[in-house]
């Protein structure tokens, strides 16, 4: 893996170079093994939290981990194009617009002992801006090259906080073109529901049950690139113990292995259906 500036990453994309890089400030990583009409993203995978923010933060390391999406990058790591956040959403949230990306409160609890100074907030927002410059360049390249593109926007959610039965998988589709992409959305939902988990873990898959797909990442791509479908794909955190902060690697591997085949198959079907 190389360490590259945002400008160099964008230049590599424009020149269609294969590369694996972390951004110079270590805020996100991008791997491109081949230019294909699909992208895998794990924007909430990151857990880094700038040390200069520690003393002022009221949330514990566990509080932050609980609301992040650990292991989502590992679930998609085998695919040709993988974009992942390295920083915690508690520093700045890549799935919120810039004006809302730096939290004042998080999940009902005040985040900072003292209001965050503007210079510290700006440092975080510059990383948010840089990430979206790369998102734009990458999606623009793929849509121009292939005509259409599909982005698998991988997230996870804390299922045990719900007071009702919730699905293993949830697709949020309220901000995408459901009429145009209906067949592909349903095919993805169906494919996810067929994944078999160890230890009698159920595999159910629903649309807009727990989340509706209101994230900024999805909206940014959808608003700028009409021929790119973003599939906001949430897995319940069946792959860890939410309360003990323990990861179940055999479940993570199950997901990763299942997506190795199912995801490119779905992407190929999407391309064949919509590239005409």
TrEMBL record:
Highest rank taxon of the organism: Bacteria
SUPFAM superfamilies assigned to the protein according to its UniProt record, in alphabetical order: Zn-dependent exopeptidases
Name by which UniProt lists this protein: N-formylglutamate amidohydrolase
Pfam name, any one: FGase
InterPro entries with a match to the protein in the record: N-FG_amidohydro
Organism name: Xanthomarina gelatinilytica
